[in-house]
Design goal:
Number of strands: 36
Distance between the termini: 54 Å
Structural class: alpha+beta
Radius of gyration: 27 Å
Length: 687
């Protein structure tokens, strides 16, 4: 039978006739109303010619192609001992999913394909050992065909405080593969692996993308075969998984997305889908985090002025970062000893929390439960709970706690459970500051998932932020268990603009934290104006990371105006459609968010550097209704924006402009001549 899934302008067609592995005939643009006869004609017509000096029958790439069938490309499924024969046992419809069952030697495979109402394709895989001896599973990935016009690859690299750096290339024949071996995504995580028509951008081009919804090692690749096939593959990186008789392994879901409208088209599908199952508990509170404000200098006396200043500027949550627990005087000791340090907090955290709550703020707490220090009571009592030997190389002066050890898992669960029961903690900032540096990490990740699931079940009102030395673990697997990501350890707005731009293709803005840091960034030493810092943080889940108790009244008033602006537009920022502009000037970034009814929008025109000409690129406002008229005006973010000009453009002098959406999308508004490291904030409303 030929199966057809349709949703939101996307078609997925699977030819499941016969005993060979089913074939994905089409994944991408909707092909129109196809009845059974048309589907059969399509599948038959797609059978290729037989090339000279090749196998002597037409070769089709099945969902699990085998070497013995002529597939010499990278195998998505590898199971040892090798079986040369695969049998299709049947494909059935289960709700919105197509489920295919295959037999490969003693292995039973089940592949599930679900097309969500947003047009997002979910591919799940499961393998069971039906034999009497162990099997070794070396790969259990998803493989999807892409057309020949998909020639350009976009993926990501990066480093600490510089995540999500895009890299583009046009591979020839062969495989372009990205494997991660961090035990978490890593700062260089390929994250969202995209192939598309040459020159695709944010608002144009046809693209196909995959994401592995998994917080451990992964493999993603694009293969363009010289025999005429192009495919993308994605899955958990397995380093020889032993499967005993009767055991089953479920692979992480692969999320696959097609768009005919460039990268923004991916977001237009992904963001509504993510919001359908990862709804926050409420409006995203303005969050003040204490790390860059005080570091390890914690005391009630030191923090009280910061709490009061946070309340004055309109913060809604204060998170006490690293340094509160027993013996933690620096970053070289005490991880694992999750009890309140009586020397720093002789009366416990109660007095601080009372002050925080009394000023009208929620209280949050930093933890790093997956790690352990050599110099800790826990390591001295249980060195066997370390994932690697005590004399193995450390990373940030710490080891990894082996959460697959039942006693270690229970200890961490009980300590966190006790803290959450003892204190009115509204949020945990859950950090993870090093790679695992072991070959097999899947069980550790699954143990983490079980830990998060158990704590959330016991404390459903507590929000959890996932931080991994910044943005080294941002994925849709852990998002099912957390409420926020710390996007990067850098609060430098110049770096943040790029990091946020690319991370936001996959993750909706309300799940990404962004804070106003000090004038001089702690990670780069670069200075930035208050207006630029505030505009950069405004578009995500906004917060502050600075000792604002030392600011003067004018700066505090500016922050108060900014938090009021954030609260006033929070529903739009966290419920609208994210749009971005492909500007020809690399010094310019333009982005915004448009309300679902297209009646309102916020946009930012950002000068990252010196413009490439005296009069820079015009302001482009995409995503609006072309037939409606809009008023465009600049918003005072709370602090002055620097320009290098003798006079503003005429429309700004006049207090704004009223134009149709079709005109605004064409880029008819000249910008002011912003100084490098400044941004113009625009509010767009219907007339």
């Amino acid at each position: 039978m030929i199966h057809h899934l349709r949703a939101a302008g996307v078609d997925f067609i699977l030819d499941a006739r016969g005993t060979a592995a089913p074939v994905v005939v089409h994944w991408g643009r909707a092909l129109g109303d196809l009845d059974a006869a048309a589907l059969t004609a399509l599948a038959d017509a797609a059978i290729p010619a037989v090339a000279p000096s090749s196998i002597d029958r037409p070769f089709r790439v099945g969902v699990v192609p085998l070497l013995t069938e002529g597939w010499t490309g990278r195998p998505p499924v590898e199971i040892s001992p090798f079986s040369p024969v695969l049998r299709h046992l049947g494909t059935r419809r289960e709700g919105d999913a197509l489920v295919t069952t295959l037999a490969l030697g003693d292995a039973s495979l089940e592949l599930s394909y679900t097309l969500t109402p947003e047009g997002v394709l979910l591919v799940d895989r499961r393998v069971r050992n039906d034999g009497a001896a162990d099997l070794e599973v070396r790969a259990l990935a998803a493989l999807l065909p892409v057309p020949a016009r998909a020639r350009e690859v976009l993926d990501f690299s990066g480093r600490w405080a510089g995540e999500r750096e895009p890299q583009r290339l046009r591979p020839g024949h062969g495989v372009w593969a990205r494997d991660t071996r961090h035990g978490r995504g890593g700062h260089d995580d390929p994250f969202l692996f995209t192939v598309g028509t040459p020159g695709f951008g944010f608002r144009h081009g046809e693209v196909w993308a995959t994401h592995v919804a998994w917080s451990g090692d992964r493999s993603v690749w694009f293969e363009r075969s010289d025999v005429g096939f192009s495919v993308v593959g994605a899955g958990e990186r397995l380093d020889g998984l032993a499967l005993a008789p009767g055991e089953t392994h479920e692979a992480p879901t692969v999320v696959a997305v097609w768009s005919n409208d460039g990268l923004d088209g991916l977001s237009a599908r992904l963001h509504p889908w993510v919001r359908s199952w990862a709804t926050p508990r409420g409006p995203r509170p303005v969050t003040l985090n204490t790390w860059e404000a005080v570091y390890f200098e914690q005391s009630l006396e030191r923090l009280t002025p910061l709490v009061d200043a946070a309340a004055r500027v309109g913060a809604e949550r204060l998170v006490l970062d690293d340094g509160w627990f027993h013996g933690r005087t620096d970053d070289r000791r005490a991880l694992g000893d999750w009890t309140v340090d009586e020397r720093v907090w002789p009366d416990g955290l109660g007095p601080l929390i009372s002050r925080v709550n009394g000023d009208g703020l929620e209280f949050g707490l930093w933890v790093e439960p997956e790690m352990i220090s050599d110099d800790s009571d826990l390591a001295r009592a249980h060195p066997e709970w370390m994932l690697t030997p005590a004399d193995a190389v450390t990373w940030r002066f710490q080891h990894v706690l082996d959460l697959t050890h039942p006693d270690a898992w229970q200890y961490i669960h009980d300590r966190l459970d006790a803290l959450l029961a003892q204190y009115p903690i509204a949020a945990l900032k859950w950090d993870h500051n090093r790679d695992l540096l072991v070959p097999r990490t899947g069980d550790q990740v699954r143990a983490l998932y079980r830990l998060l699931d158990a704590l959330r079940a016991a404390h459903p009102g507590v929000e959890i932020e996932s931080c991994a030395s910044g943005g080294a673990r941002i994925d849709l697997g852990i998002l099912r268990r957390v409420d926020r990501f710390w996007t990067s350890d850098t609060n430098d707005p110049l770096a943040r603009q790029r990091i946020q731009r690319w991370t936001g293709i996959l993750i909706p803005p309300e799940f990404l934290g962004s804070h106003v840091g000090d004038e001089r960034a702690h990670t780069t030493g670069r200075t930035a104006s208050l207006a630029f810092r505030m505009t950069t943080a405004l578009f995500l889940h906004a917060g502050i990371e600075s000792d604002i108790s030392r600011l003067d009244d004018a700066q505090l008033d500016a922050l108060a105006a900014w938090t009021a602006l954030y609260r006033a537009h929070r529903a739009l920022l966290h419920g609208g459609t994210t749009v971005r502009v492909d500007d020809p000037d690399p010094a310019v970034l333009q982005h915004g968010v448009v309300a679902p009814d297209r009646g309102e929008a916020l946009f930012a025109y950002v000068a990252l550097d010196r413009f490439d000409r005296a009069l820079p690129s015009p302001i482009v406002l995409p995503g609006l209704d072309p037939d409606r008229r809009y008023r465009v005006r600049a918003i005072d973010v709370g602090a002055p924006v620097r320009t290098v000009q003798d006079a503003d453009p005429a429309w700004l002098v006049a207090g704004g402009a009223v134009l149709p959406g079709s005109v605004l999308a064409e880029g008819m508004l000249p910008p002011p001549l912003l100084a490098p490291g400044e941004a113009l904030l625009l509010h767009v409303t219907t007339e």
